[in-house]
Amino acid sequence: MAQHEHVRVAVIGSGFGGLGAAVRLRREGITDFVILERAGSVGGTWRDNSYPGCACDVPSHLYSFSFAPNPEWPRTFSGQEHIRAYLEHVADTFGLRPHLRLNHEVTMMRWDGDELHWVIESANGSTVLADVVVSATGPLSDPKMPDIPGLADFPGKVFHSARWDHDADLTGKRVAMIGTGASAIQIVPSIQPKAAKLTLFQRTPPWVMPRMDRTISGAERWLHRTLPFTGTARRGLLWGIRELQVSAFTKHPDQLGLVERIAKSNMARSIKDPVLRAKLTPSYRIGCKRILLSSAYYPALARPNVDVVASGLAEVRGSTVVASDGTEAEVDAIVFGTGFHVTDMPIAERVVGAEGGTLAESWKGGMQALRGASAAGFPNWMTIIGPNTGLGNSSMILMIEAQLNYMADYLRQLDVLGGRVALDARPSAVGSWNRRVQERMKRTVWNTGGCTSWYLDANGRNTTVWPGTTAEFRKVTRTVDLSEYQVVRVPAQRDARPAVAEEVAG
How far, in Å, CA of 323 to CA of 200, rounded? Predict the structure, then answer.
């Protein structure tokens, strides 16, 4: 019988969520874990997204771990290369390299109810057994490519923003940019000066606010390095400002009118053509889709070598791209900025639970997980950045750290229970949590703002965003309530009978 590595915890992914989980495990005294990473290096989405102009839209000092402050951030909004370097630094500083298993793409995770562990198979043929799985694959990890008729026969370069082809020289080329999301508004200003012609296919215009980015001075960096509490104070101020904004998104969308006027002024400064301005003006409430930040996007669109087509891409005929409204353009390259599989994450197809079904099947009617972490029927399996943990205005690192608190207490509870044991979220608890979240979601701008966004799943339900403050989420994920779980133990005799589920008093 083949011998497989057996660990206490298997972490899937090495982006912010995975590395954060690994650091927290070590701080809890747990060293019996591995980090399974499909690529050849750490970094997650900040490794995969290396397109021109790639940067974060959350201030640097807030977009970093509280336990790993970086006084050397070079800009107020850091670029991809700096964030990736920060994650490499975290891996080194906290001694995570020995736990890393690079080039280990998980192809299947199957719960073994007899042995009470997960059997994790990787594409390289290896198998790991884990008592607990922490899935930190992230919602922005698998690019979404639309099924466009004729695309396979396009003679030029075709790639997604998250899989940028650095061998493709766009200088002097006719380029089609598909989509106007967060990636596209950074790509457009970066490639516009070198492209002979840039045609932007826009299904829905975004709201774009000015990007107040600047170089962080040497004096500021010295201050944060010498007096660390100043960096902590800066982070706290950035956090507090965003917490105060939450009610406008979640309870009083009418208060966003001022923000809307600022965004329109941002457009008016650069877009003088009334026809183009009409194309670029959204018809939905600001905040319904993610508010984008750029001071270079509108100036780029006003350049003579840029055309904005107010319609999505419908067909490709040879080197001709055709929009839904019939507009045609001859292009040499097509760049897709069409987002990711967020509400239909491919990893869910690879997780097989206690009843033999996949997580994707369990979530067919919409993703839901207890406190954004635990899915019913999937014992000792937790997800970081799970259903309804996303944010519309602040740093996801805050939400990740809150979930790491929950993960740590989850493991403590297993220790207290003793023996070979697992926790399985009760369907009633998951359902109750989800109903409360969805009820609160009804008032939010994401549901009432009049748009269709990637926050919504195929059924029109908002299964991605948290309808509250980060402080509130941290409070509800501080500890595990055992009454929301079934305690599962190894059967007394190894036969076909299922494991016993203990009732735990609330």
Answer: 10
CA distances from 199 to 157, 182, 276, 312 (A): 15, 17, 13, 11
Question: How does DSSP classify residue 482?
Answer: G
Q: How confident is the model at residue 4 (pLDDT cuts 50, 70, 90)?
A: confident
**Main-chain phi, psi angles of 188, to 5 degrees:** -55, -50
User: Which of 88, 81, 80 has the alpha carbon at shortest distance from 37?
Assistant: 88
Inter-residue contact 112 to 119 (CB < 8 Å):
yes
Euclidean distance between CA atoms 285 and 260, whole angstroms: 8
Query: Cα(115)–Cα(1) distance, rounded to whole angstroms?
Result: 16
Q: For the chain, which domains are there?
A: 5-142+341-502 (3.50.50.60), 151-212+244-336 (3.50.50.60)
Q: What is the pLDDT of residues 184-204, one digit of tens each?
A: 999 999 999 999 999 999 999
CA separation for the pair 254, 443 (Å, rounded): 11
Tell me which DSSP letter residue 390 carries. B
Phi and psi, residue 428, nearest 5°:
-65, -35
Nearest to 301 by CA among 405, 397, 433, 208: 208
**What band does 492 get if pLDDT is binned at 50, 70 and 90?**
low
Q: How far apart are CA 122 and CA 130, in angstroms?
A: 13
Strands 208-209 and 292-293: parallel
Averaged pLDDT for residues 281-286: 96
3-state per-residue secondary structure call for 36-86: ECCCCCCCCHHHHCCCCCCECCCCCCCCCCCCCCCCCCCECCCEHHHHHHH
**Residue with tokens 């639309």, as numbered in its chain:** 146
Token pair, residue 131, equals 């008592």
471-480: pLDDT as tens digits: 999 999 999 9
Q: What is the DSSP string of 407-471?
A: HHHHHHHHHHH-SSEEEEE-HHHHHHHHHHHHHHHTTSHHHHSS---TTB-TTS-B-SB-SS-HH
Among 457, 393, 449, 451, residue whose Cα is nearest residue 204: 451
CA distances from 127 to 37, 105, 190, 305 (A): 14, 11, 43, 53
pLDDT confidence tier of residue 1, bands split at 50, 70 and 90: very low
Output the CA–CA distances (angstroms, integers) from residue 119 to 247, 382, 444, in the order listed: 43, 15, 40
Do the beta carbons of residue 463 and residue 387 sit within 8 Å?
Answer: yes
- Which residues contact residue 434 at a Cβ distance below 8 angstroms, ignoring those fewer than 6 apart? 368, 387, 388
Among 23, 13, 7, residue whose Cα is nearest residue 128: 7
